[in-house]
Amino acid sequence: MMRRLLSAFHPFETGSSEILLEQFRVLRNQVPLMYALMLVDAAFLSFASHGSVSMAWSVGVPALLGILCAVRTLFWLRRRGFEPQPEKIRRYLLSTTLVAAVLSLGFGGWGMFLYAEADLLRRACIALYIFIGTICCCYCLQSLPRAGYLVLLCGAAPVTVYMIFSESWFLRGLGMNMVLVSVVVVRMLRTNFAGFLEVLTSRIDMAMEQRRARGAEQRAYQLAYHDPLTGLPNRRALAEALGARLHARHPDGAFGLLIVDLDRFKAVNDVHGHPIGDQLLHDVADRLGDIVNGVGQSYRLGGDEFAIVLEGGSDSVCRVAKAIVQRLAQPFAAGERTHHIGASVGTALFPEDGNDRETLMRRGDIALYKAKQSGRGRHCAFEASLDAEIRRRAVIESDMREAIACDAFVPHYQPIVDLGSGVVVGYELLARWPRPRGAEIGPDQFIPIAEECGLIDELMLGLLTRAFRETRDWGMMIAVNVSPNQLRDAWFSQKMLATLSREQFPARNLTVEITENALITDAASVRETILSLKDQGINLALDDFGTGYSSLQHLQMLPFDKIKIDRSFVTTMDHDAKALRLVDAIVALARRLDLPVVAEGIESAATADALAALGCTYGQGYHFGHPMAADEVEAVWHRLSCRSDLSAPSRLRAG
């Protein structure tokens, strides 16, 4: 009922809560002033009418009206300290409109009585007092125009009508003038209120735009500084947090930077799909948050790599790194399966390991690299020696790229000998790198680096091209060890066959040696590559037999032509009975499978004789000859042929 009544007064006064609140704020400041003006006006009217009417009309009535004004003034003054709900504001506006009408009727009625009892001069004064007071009230009620209209209607209109119908042309003229002013005042109220609404609406719209802009800014900040998948701050947030902390005039105490990389995550992601991988990353973020809660902040750097900034020194950093390795090694439930991944952690400390952001992050990465190189599933703290090692590897990689481009790697050949007859039956191809500056680096150092930086394929194919040219006319078996990364390349067999065809090297004279560990990851792709090589007539050897996983299963599943016993067994069999028994078992197994055995690492005649007695077919090692360049091999043939009547290289005995 009250809402319908309020709507009848003015449609805008039932508008939005922002408009209602602004009307309330304006009236809260203006209404007390309006009542003060009414009190002053009543006092002047009382003084002007004193002596012409009784005390009840000259003092009693204005006193009563003054009390009512004081009550309403107190009502509004008490509401200066708070901002009520919109529904209450509507009631306040309605009551203000009604009270304005009642008080205007009271003042107007009192003024009409005084006007009727006064002489001409006093009538003019009374009319002016009433009209001026009414206009002042209208100005105070600009934000509530319907109340202003009622004040004009109930307060000024009665006296104005009296004046228009007065016998005095003076009063008639004054009345007509007051009508014109009233019209202007009404128009002013409408125009000012429309302007009030327009300004207020613009301000509301501007505030909404500002809120939207702040919301968009917050969303942009969230996207720029947080990972959308895990909700963690991202690499950019980490860089700025470290920068702000390290560039402070008085940086906080010691803290640690932990770089966390997930182990075996890629395999899970590739096999089970990205939704499972995303769930795993989210669960990892939750576990990291539980571990560092209250003492650090975790970040996602990208992919399966995370970082943690941790308060405290080396002991607390080491303790948290150990906890991360242990917690992330526990199984994760994602989808309908349980997944096992694990993590490696590298740590760097401020200020011991670096005083700037770049150094800390780089040294954390170096420590992580060492942890993964040490076998994964462990944590490693940065040491100065690690930095030197990384720099050395970077120099080697740079030099290696130049060496590959100018064909500086040289193939060397180590003889493979028939242990029964002592005849050289083939050679194993080994890479050598004669560096123009610095000491020569062995393959045990540059081959792993070539595998890590993706140069192994280009390096190996370049060596094979040169070796095929050098050994094409030898008519002997050439063995080459192939990297696991190359076997996972779907195009490797085509590259190998193209090189054989281009250099016109017989495929039957090539043996590809494959380590057992190469058969573990991506077994289906590796098997397809191996079978493709076998179909072209290339021989296959299972290298380092006994040191990997599921050796017997590999012999059963893949068409190997021979197996090679790892040198770690051969070099210790002279003084280690267990190693001797293992070699004997491998040779016996190979004999039953009708596979010849090659023993590598033979360094004495006694070892060679013992292997021959066990039934081992072939052997290689320093006892039979060191790796040699092609011209050195041919020089040996020449010396031996001069001392005997043998001319074919395939019949030369090891010297």
Describe this structure in words.
With 655 residues, the chain is of the alpha/beta class. The chain is built from 23 helices and 15 strands. The chain has helices spanning 2-9, 17-49, 55-77, 86-117, 120-140, 145-164, 169-225, 235-246, 265-272, 274-292, 314-329, 357-373, 384-405, 443-452, 456-471, 484-487, 492-503, 523-535, 551-557, 567-570, 577-592, 605-614, 630-643, and strands at 255-262, 296-302, 305-311, 332-334, 337-339, 343-350, 379-381, 410-418, 424-432, 477-481, 510-515, 539-545, 562-565, 597-600, 618-620. The strands form three sheets. It has an eight-stranded mixed β-barrel, surrounded by four helices. Mean pLDDT is 83; it is low at 1-14 and 645-651.
List keywords for this structure.
655 residues, alpha/beta, eight-stranded mixed beta barrel, five-stranded mixed beta sheet, 23 helices, 13% strand, rod-shaped, disordered N terminus
Oligomer state of the chains in this structure:
single chain
Percent of residues in beta strands? 5-15%
- Tally of DSSP β-strands: 15
Distance between the termini: 119 Å
Structural class assignment: alpha/beta
Summarize the structure.
With 655 residues, this protein is of the alpha/beta class. The chain has helices at residues 2-9, 17-49, 55-77, 86-117, 120-140, 145-164, 169-225, 235-246, 265-272, 274-292, 314-329, 357-373, 384-405, 443-452, 456-471, 484-487, 492-503, 523-535, 551-557, 567-570, 577-592, 605-614, 630-643, and strands at residues 255-262, 296-302, 305-311, 332-334, 337-339, 343-350, 379-381, 410-418, 424-432, 477-481, 510-515, 539-545, 562-565, 597-600, 618-620. It has 23 helices and 15 strands.
